[in-house]
Write a structure and sequence with these properties.
Strand order of the largest sheet: 6-7-9-8
Number of strands: 9
Order of helices and strands: HHHHHHHEHEEHEEHHEEHEEHH
Distance between the termini: 116 Å
Largest sheet: 4 strands, antiparallel
Radius of gyration: 29 Å
CATH superfamily of the largest domain: Homing endonucleases
Helix content: 40-55%
CATH topology of the largest domain: Endonuclease I-creI
Length: 321
């Protein structure tokens, strides 16, 4: 009998049987093909690796095939598989698969990042409990939360949860160490410290990032912290982005310049005003939130009304003369 068969028969660990057998009868040589019970080592190793790819946990494979952890780890590494931590295995059991991560700065990934700059649930400094929570607090805008969820699923292949804690407290979140590490490769998050890392920012300001991709990403921040302000008495019309992070706003200002959008940068805000500039904003960035988008359209339409009134008054003056 093989050591493994003996271990199963006497309900002992493989290491225990192997150690006792060596003491009694000495070492013995077994061919590579008989190293695993039932199949050759190569075939068995492929089977274990595939089951692990499909979501099986380390403990379930150990129990199923009666192998020690050290040997399982050796097989998995030989197939180029990384050993999952507890939180990664919990993620697999919940979602049925690992998230798909890539080292590409896509439009969807940029939207996720920018939205978290404004309304992220957890700062980069989060270390307690190792939950690695990623998400946004969307306030009363359910369409913002649903858009973020849809964009996240498009990028990572898994769907975050939508939680309604109150009329004005709608959240979208997921816990994943893999996604956490992927996002923090490009940026840091926090109320006063959000921003892109130097290498990522250099990439965004280069020709490698298209203006369309950049504009869609920046929309995430305006969805989170942007507002439409129209004061009839003062005839003031503007789209404003507010933040207590001056360095983060400076990065955004540089990206807006690259997009070709004229704006004004202040210590705690960015403002876009003027008919042509607001139309540019609508075309190049816009809002994904329905109520903000409608407010922007209505505000721009007042320019048309004002121009029409001026033309009407001028026509009446000419007719009077």
């Amino acid at each position: 009998m093989t050591d493994r068969q003996l271990a199963t028969l006497v309900h002992r660990s493989l290491q225990s049987v192997r150690s006792k057998r060596q003491q009694i009868v000495g070492f013995r040589t077994v061919s590579g093909k008989r190293r695993w019970e039932g199949e050759s080592g190569i075939v068995f190793g492929d089977t274990v690796a595939q089951e692990y790819r499909d979501g099986a946990s380390q403990s379930s494979l150990i129990d199923k095939y009666h192998i020690e952890w050290r040997k399982l780890a050796q097989v998995l590494r030989s197939h180029g598989l990384r050993i999952r931590g507890k939180s990664q295995q919990a993620f697999i059991e919940k979602y049925g698969k690992d998230p798909t991560t890539s080292r590409r700065m896509t439009a969807s990934k940029l939207y996720i990042i920018f939205a978290m700059f404004g309304d992220g649930l957890r700062p980069t400094t989060q270390t307690r409990r190792n939950t690695h929570i990623i998400g946004i607090a969307a306030g009363k805008d359910r369409d913002f939360a649903e858009n973020w969820i849809s964009t996240f699923e498009q990028e990572y292949g898994v769907k975050p949860s939508l939680t309604i804690l109150g009329k004005n407290n709608i959240q979208a979140s997921i816990s994943s160490v893999d996604v956490w590490n992927d996002l923090h490769r490009y940026a840091t998050f926090g109320t006063r410290s959000w921003g892109f890392r130097d290498s990522a920012f250099s990439y965004l300001t280069s020709d490698k990032t298209s203006l369309g991709t950049l504009g869609y990403g920046v929309r995430g921040l305006f969805d989170a912290d942007g507002s439409v302000k129209y004061e009839v008495k003062r005839a003031s019309r503007q789209v404003t982005l507010s933040s207590v992070n001056p360095s983060g706003l400076k990065q955004v200002s540089i990206l807006l310049n690259r997009i070709g959008l004229r704006h004004s940068l202040y210590k705690d805000s960015i403002s876009i005003f003027g008919r042509e500039n607001l139309i540019d904003y609508q075309q190049k960035i816009g809002f994904g939130i329905r109520r903000k988008n409608e407010a922007l359209i209505n505000m721009i339409s007042t320019f048309q009304d004002q121009i029409g009134q001026r033309r009407f008054c001028k026509t009446r003056q000419l007719m009077a003369h």
